[in-house]
Amino acid sequence: MYWEEKKRPEEFVVPDDVVDVMFGIACRCLPVDHVYALSQALAASLPWLEAEGGLHPILVAGSGNGWMRPENSTDLLYPSRRTKLTLRVPKARVTDTQELSGKTIIVAGQDLRIERASIKPLSAITTLFSHHVIAGDGDEQRFMKEVVAELAALGIRPKKMLCGKETVIKMGGEEVRARSLMLADLAIEEAVLLQQRGLGPLRHLGCGLFIPHKDINEVKQVLD
User: Is the predicted pLDDT of residue 10 greater than 50, yes or no?
Assistant: First the structure.
């Protein structure tokens, strides 16, 4: 006889083959739409980031949940000493990434000093949020159908999903449409896989990267 019990969440060990490398930063201010300028500034030190890693947008108090985003892309964010620069990278690239510590880069005309690094494993929380997922032509219904199809290709069957308003990300002379996206009640293995793999293109511009979120119901009440 063969008998395999389903793993309980507390027994699941999150693998460390993909992690977040978090840096303290010192920077006076940044525009809300800063990810392209930041990725370009990082490319000199991490030329592999576009192909192998991902860049989380820099968030400050009041913008962290991603659903109530400032109106204009040129509005300014004012990082505090608690604000982090976070890169999602494969384990084999952690040492390369840590070499950013102590460097100063120029982002949208502002000096950004990168400080000491710490390593954060992916989360076992099963409600996940992405600030930006590429949304094609911007149609919400089509976007959700495409998301379901992409998740199915990963073997993920979402039970609850909410998407936010469309935003535009500028990348040089081009623009792409994106939407925020939350998924809830995932299996723990699905949640970890989605953090590892992401969704859609442009990870180096902060798109398709998922982070843990406490509760989908809070967000649903805001959107309703």
Answer: yes
User: Domain spans of the chain?
Assistant: 18-121, 128-223
Dig out the tokens for 68 from the structure.
């109530």
- Spatial neighbors of 182 by CB under 8 A, at least 6 apart, are 127, 128, 129, 130, 161, 162, 163, 213, 216, 219
- Whats the size of the chain, residue-wise? 224
Name the pairing type of β-strands 76-77 and 30-31: antiparallel
46 HSE (CA, 13 A, CB side): 28
**Domains 18-121 and 128-223 in one fold:** yes
Nearby residues of 202 by Cβ (< 8 Å), 6 or more positions away? 134, 169, 171, 176, 208
Residue type, position 40, single letter = Q
Closest CA to 55 of 169, 140, 143: 169
Of residues 143, 141, 151, 165, the one with CA closest to residue 210: 151
Instruction: List the structure tokens of 185.
Output: 């009640």
What is the pTM assigned to this prediction? 0.84
pLDDT in tens, 33-43: 899 999 999 99
CATH number of 128-223: 3.30.70.1210
Residues 6+ apart with CB under 8 A from 42: 49, 55, 87, 100, 105
- Secondary-structure class of domain 18-121 per CATH: alpha beta
What is the Cβ-side half-sphere exposure of residue 13, based on CA atoms within 13 angstroms? Answer: 3
